[in-house]
Write a structure and sequence with these properties.
The chain is mostly beta strands. It is built from no helices and 11 strands. A hairpin with an 8-residue loop joins strand 10 and strand 11. It is globular.
Length: about 170
């Protein structure tokens, strides 16, 4: 995400950044071994063994545990430091309730609008990424999160504020 010295519009920030203080509930859990890296701002689930992993194709809205938070963490790659992630069995900070910035891959969020996560790839929507947040339904290829709403429109970098209303998978 490019930085600007003098801009004409505000960006919402980097994915995974807490956007509203005061109503933030978070928890740290270990990442499940040998699973995909969890990027800041990704939706996550909590497994039966208490570990966390990235939201995937077989997961349901009831399994949504929150969003991977952007916390102080050392870079794991020299050339790709803008998209930091959790890897291995690192502790993952998860926002369970509150406001957080995330990437919106498909659709244009509306304030109070429905939040979707893609579970099945669709060749007709190349921007849709399995496990990514979206602002538009795509039939059975996406699931709606009933405990989350969009709090803002998206900025020029396709980042928007998502509000998680209630905790799940505690």
């Amino acid at each position: 995400m490019p930085g600007k010295v003098i801009g004409i519009s505000f960006n919402y920030g980097y994915p995974g950044t807490i956007s509203r203080m005061g109503d933030e509930i978070s928890r740290t859990r270990p990442m499940k071994a040998e699973t995909d890296d969890i990027y800041f701002g990704d939706p996550v689930i909590v497994s039966a063994d208490g570990t966390t992993q990235k939201f995937g194709a077989s997961d349901t809205a009831a399994a949504f545990a929150g969003v991977a938070m952007r916390k102080i963490k050392g870079a794991t790659q020299y050339l790709a430091q803008n998209r930091a992630f959790y890897t291995g069995q690192e502790p993952v900070d998860i926002l369970e309730r509150g406001g957080v910035t995330v990437n919106v891959n498909v659709g244009t969020p509306t304030i109070g609008g429905a939040v979707y996560i893609r579970t099945v790839a669709n060749a007709g929507i190349p921007a849709g990424v399995v496990g990514g947040f979206e602002a538009a339904a795509d039939g059975t290829n996406t699931i709606q999160l009933t405990n989350a709403k969009w709090a803002t429109l998206k900025d020029a970098n396709s980042v928007a504020e998502l509000t998680i209303l209630t905790r799940q998978s505690v």
